[in-house]
Amino acid sequence: MYYLNQGLRFYSTKALCHKQIIDRIIRVDHAGELGADRIYAGQMAVLGRTSVGPVIQHMWDQEKEHKAKFEELMPKYRTRPTVLIPLWNVAGFVLGASTALLGKEGAMACTVAVESVITDHYNSQLRELIALGEDENKELIEVIRKFRDDEMEHHDTGLQHDAELAPAYNVLSNVIKAGCKAAVFISERI
Amino acid sequence: MNRVTHFTELLNCFHIALRAGPRRGMRTTSLVLSQEQPSHDNTSTESPDAEDVESFATGSAEDAEDELRNSILDAALPFVHSYGWSQDALAQGAESLGYSGMAHGMFPGGGVDLVNHFYTLCNHKLQLSLEEQVKEAQGNPELKKGTTAFIASAVEERLRMNIEYIDSWHRALALHASPLNVQNSLHNLGTLVDHVWYYAGDRTTDFNWYTKRGILAAVYKSTEIYMLQDKSEDFQDSWAFMNRRLSDVHSVGKCAQSSQKFMGIVRDVSVAGLSTALNILGMNGRVR
Question: What CATH number should be reported for the domain whose range is A11-189?
Answer without folding.
Answer: 1.20.1260
